[in-house]
């Protein structure tokens, strides 16, 4: 039997990477439908968590029926383990996504797209970059700058509370205080620093959706990000 060196917990009392079995066990023992996995290296564990591809048990607790949800408070908390859109959308929200091209006119480039729905209108944000410290993380800088640009635009529009719909797990887990992952790479550190600055001006909650599942807003920002890096 393989002896694992680290354990990743995707669903438990606390989520993240734990370096001993007792630490991991404390998060999953007695917790309903925990999701965790052992790895030989910390890098493998983090990649698994960031991938968003963890397989949850079929007995996992499901969302309440729409008629039983208090929508006035539903978006006051983060929803990091969801995959589908809610039955009711919040008053102000954004879809964000990122992309990457390792040879766009001879350069490695990351790009992003975002749609901010506020005050009854849609506002679009997009851009790209090739900063050396960030581009090594491939599409992740695009995801990050998509989120930050959408939040910044919402602040400009005077939005007091924004719900960010995203498909890259790190966006929610790096930002939320209750389940915050440790930011280690330059792009993650930059994201956390800027997000913390923005959070003094606006309340932000995160809502995870699964990529490439025909969610219109998510598909649109995916195409926007790809255009920024010359894929479309």
UniProtKB/TrEMBL annotation:
What is catalysed by this protein? Endonucleolytic cleavage to 5'-phosphomonoester
One Pfam annotation, family name?
RNase_H
Q: GO molecular function terms here?
A: metal ion binding; nucleic acid binding; RNA-DNA hybrid ribonuclease activity
Recorded E.C. number(s)? 3.1.26.4
Swiss-Prot/TrEMBL keywords: Endonuclease, Hydrolase, Magnesium, Metal-binding, Nuclease
Name-wise, this protein is ribonuclease H
Q: Name one GO biological process term.
A: DNA replication, removal of RNA primer
Signal sequence annotation:
none
Please give the PROSITE patterns that the UniProt record associates with this protein.
RNASE_H_1
- Necessary cofactors: Mg(2+)
Return the broad EC class: hydrolase
Location of the RNase H type-1 domain: 88-230
**InterPro entries to which the protein is assigned, alphabetical:** Ribosomal_bL9/RNase_H1_N (IPR009027), RNase_H (IPR050092), RNase_H1_N (IPR011320), RNase_H1_N_sf (IPR037056), RNaseH-like_sf (IPR012337), RNaseH_domain (IPR002156), RNaseH_sf (IPR036397)
Question: To which protein family does this belong?
Answer: Belongs to the RNase H family.
């Amino acid at each position: 039997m393989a002896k694992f060196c680290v354990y990743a917990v995707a669903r438990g009392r606390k989520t993240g990477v734990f370096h001993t079995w007792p630490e991991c066990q404390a998060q999953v023992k007695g917790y309903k439908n925990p999701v965790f996995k052992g790895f030989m290296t910390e890098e493998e564990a983090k990649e698994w968590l960031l991938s968003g591809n963890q397989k949850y048990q079929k007995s996992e607790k499901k969302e309440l029926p729409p008629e039983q949800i208090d929508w006035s408070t539903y978006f006051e908390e983060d929803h990091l383990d969801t995959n589908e859109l809610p039955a009711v959308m919040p008053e102000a929200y954004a879809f964000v996504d990122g992309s990457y091209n390792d040879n766009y006119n001879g350069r490695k480039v990351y790009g992003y797209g975002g749609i901010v729905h506020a005050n009854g209108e849609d506002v679009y944000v997009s851009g790209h970059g090739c900063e050396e410290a960030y581009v090594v993380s491939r599409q992740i800088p695009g995801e990050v700058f998509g989120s930050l640009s959408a939040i910044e635009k919402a602040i400009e529009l005077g939005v007091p509370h924004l719900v960010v719909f995203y498909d890259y797990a790190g966006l929610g887990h790096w930002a939320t205080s209750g389940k915050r992952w440790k930011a280690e790479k330059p792009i993650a550190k930059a994201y956390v620093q800027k997000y913390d600055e923005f959070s003094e001006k606006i309340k932000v909650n995160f809502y995870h959706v699964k990529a490439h599942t025909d969610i219109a807003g998510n598909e649109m920002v995916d195409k926007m990000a790809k255009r920024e890096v010359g894929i479309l």
